[in-house]
Design brief:
3 copies of one chain form a homotrimer.
Chain A: H1 3-21, H2 34-57, H3 62-92, H4 101-133, H5 140-146, H6 148-164, H7 170-182, E1 185-186, E2 191-192, E3 197-198, E4 205-206, E5 211-212, E6 217-218, E7 223-225, E8 249-250, E9 255-256, E10 261-263, E11 268-269, E12 274-275, E13 280-281, E14 290-293, E15 298-301
Parallel strand pairs in A: 1-4, 2-5, 3-6, 4-7, 5-8, 6-9, 7-10, 8-11, 9-12, 10-13, 12-14
Helix pairs in contact in A: 2-3, 2-4, 2-7, 3-4, 4-6, 6-7
Chain lengths: 315, 315, 315
């Protein structure tokens, strides 16, 4: 970051902070707020409860009508954050603030509204996927009330739409709210099919350019990552964002067990494949593959005395 | 989930949500609330601080008397959540709401009250276990004030009693509150002995039918999981809940180092055994066993030039 | 913990709790509060936003002036917590409460104030490090607004100064607040150089006596831990705190990929070394080393039928 840009940003930040401290409510001088983005996510998840059912009940437009009141509070907060993000983004590029921020935000919200039926359908498919895959789930209701991945995937699906629409800052802030609460880190750029399930979830990482098909199941500690995160282009610059395809593709009906790591933008896991626990995979496998570690050599020593040695980390 | 059941649940959810939005306070039409369950957990942990000491001080009934004022706020919130859960559970099964919800909840609370001295004793034993095992702990007080596993195990021990008493929804919601805050995912069904310690904790997963003896220590990233999560019964249905014994048993004085994975309902780790870091164990071992990985073959290349190759994920 | 000490602590705890319940505001009878410590951390991170830029803008003392208003709220809350911690610590040792708690706390705050310019400089260096290392980062602003490790390292750097100044309880409570929110567990005792970056972060553990040089990058799931956590001194007591050097040293420009584990107080990773994913390292390596696992033997079975076997955890 060059000094000039830093100086400019410094005064932006300071005036934004001053405005906040002074209690002013000029949305164009505000930073997007992590707390408000967290509230947006919470409202959204709460809203999907009734949407979930109405989306199955009927195919008519009445569905959208039913969702509208729940959507209103959500929309109002989200509009405000999108305004802040657009304004902040323009300033940080040194561009002029567009005349009517509210109009730009309204375009985004309208586009999002059109996605809601599809998002509700995906939400329902995810809950069904958990029930089919987890013997600890006594019913669908417990999944909705207490499974952390429900929050993670639901927020990511919303953030992914905003990411595709080009909204700055807010999508990534949304998925980090969910990451903080669940330990599941899914980049808003990742494209994920229907009926997705993550059991337990802590430590899961899914990178920006990963794609995941339908009916895929992951366990905790699975990484879909970059093999070479520091790939440069011809000018020696990092290939950032969607430009560089860095993360793997999982086709339909793939299952990945705990702690497995799958890396690289050219790595494709064929449909109906199973990747075993702790596997480290950096090349493609064909459909219906089963990839497991060779049974590791364990050293088992019986009847060692407890006074034998201090109990230490074993290699 | 069949369509008819979905339709019924949809209208339940909607009327519950409408009631909430309308500010009505009819507990029988409410969903259990994650926020209130989180408050219950917080009150409970706070309450154990003084209970902890009074439980050691004397064996008389005066102990219960001392705890009572702290217990009152906790009881009031928990009663309310149990009412919601019982009602919601009955409706989701299509059964009639029992006449006196409050009486059912009161039975649960009374049963729980009888468990408090034992829970306080276990709390004390857990703090002692941390002090004995962690050289970074300067004193017992720092453990109480800042060790995340204290929250995780304390909330799980409470949830486990409610789970055994048959309370729906609330136990799992409680352990997910603790999971969200600590990264430690212990199912309320797991049975855990006294003097339990988990260091660091992030990524620990302990399944529903696991049993753990006394004086067991785990490190971060340990999984006590199912070998075959999708075991079916004769009718081809998933064996759910307590029916299917899917998770391992750890006897007394077992230590499991970071990243180890122990799987299967028939896997039993004998007392005084030590399971090394990253071990993947799917069969039983006898008492006083020491299980470690063969020293893995490392490739060490010295003096490579930094211009040699991009720094990438290594296999 | 002997019974006498327990009894004494019990009455301390109870009177402290009674005072809180009674709404009294006698700071000397209070426990440090996790919620207030969380607020201190939040204020501190918010404060660094403008400090970040002003620290680069000029080298003059005007910098401190600019920070002062933001620092005031932070100072007020932190002073209060330090008072509680000092008082509680003295009592738990059975020592008399020092006459003027506020004076002791003021000394700590003044010392901390002198560290602020350096902390702001380190904050700036960390943000630059993320931008240089993460192709998913479109700009510096997104890093500040949404990267979890920013919160973890920023809070740890603050806690580390308080740890070095000898403040009890509060430093560890601070890093546990950040651990809870980010899944990154860095002990306040760890010494960390400038331009530090952790990608994703969930499951990272950095022990009390670890030292880390400049421009070091870690990925999620990396452990810098103790090889022998239960080392005893001649009297058979655990070697606690800074006494026992238990955790490794990483020199400048080291990169450690996901899931790697580096253990032991005598383990030193030379500068410009790269430690590959999942490596388990318990001895030193010289500068410019590259340590990777032998390519693990994978068993790949193609075209298995889905009816072939239940999909289970693979070994």
């Amino acid at each position: 970051m060059d000094l000039e840009r830093l100086n400019r940003l410094a005064s932006e930040f300071k005036s934004a902070l001053d405005a906040q401290l002074a209690g002013e409510d000029r949305s164009e001088s505000r930073l997007p707020s992590r707390n408000v983005v967290a509230a947006v996510c919470r409202h959204y998840v709460d809203m999907l409860f009734p949407l979930f059912f109405s989306s199955r009940e009927e195919q008519s437009k009445a569905r959208d009508e039913q969702a509208r009141p729940y959507f209103r509070e959500f929309e109002s907060l989200l509009t405000h954050q999108i305004c802040s993000a657009l304004c902040f983004d323009a300033r940080s590029r040194g561009e002029r603030i567009p005349g009517k921020l509210e109009d730009c935000a309204a375009v985004q919200i309208t586009a999002l509204r059109g996605q809601l039926p599809d998002l509700a359908r995906l939400f329902a498919s995810d809950i069904d996927a958990a029930f089919s895959n987890d013997p600890a789930a006594p019913n669908h209701e417990e999944i909705m009330l207490s499974y952390p991945y429900i929050e993670a995937i639901t927020v990511q699906r919303l953030a992914h739409r905003l990411y595709l629409q080009g909204v700055p800052f807010v999508p990534r802030m949304m998925t980090e709210v969910a990451h903080s609460r669940t330990g599941i880190d899914i980049h808003p750029g990742a494209s994920i099919g229907e009926s997705f399930f993550i059991d337990h979830g802590t430590g899961v990482v899914i990178g920006e350019t990963a794609t995941i098909g339908n009916k895929v199941t992951l366990y905790h500690g699975v990484t879909l990552g970059a093999f070479n995160p520091l790939e440069k282009d011809e000018q020696g610059q990092l290939r950032r964002g969607k430009e560089g395809k860095r993360h793997p593709d999982l086709e339909d009906h793939v299952t990945v067990y705990p702690g497995a790591t799958i890396l690289g933008g050219n790595t494709r896991v064929g449909h109906h494949s199973v990747i075993g626990g702790n596997v480290w995979l950096t090349h493609s496998v064909s459909p219906y593959s089963k990839v497991i570690l060779m049974e590791p050599d364990l050293v088992i020593r019986n009847h060692f005395s407890s006074s034998d040695a201090p109990l230490y980390y074993q290699i």
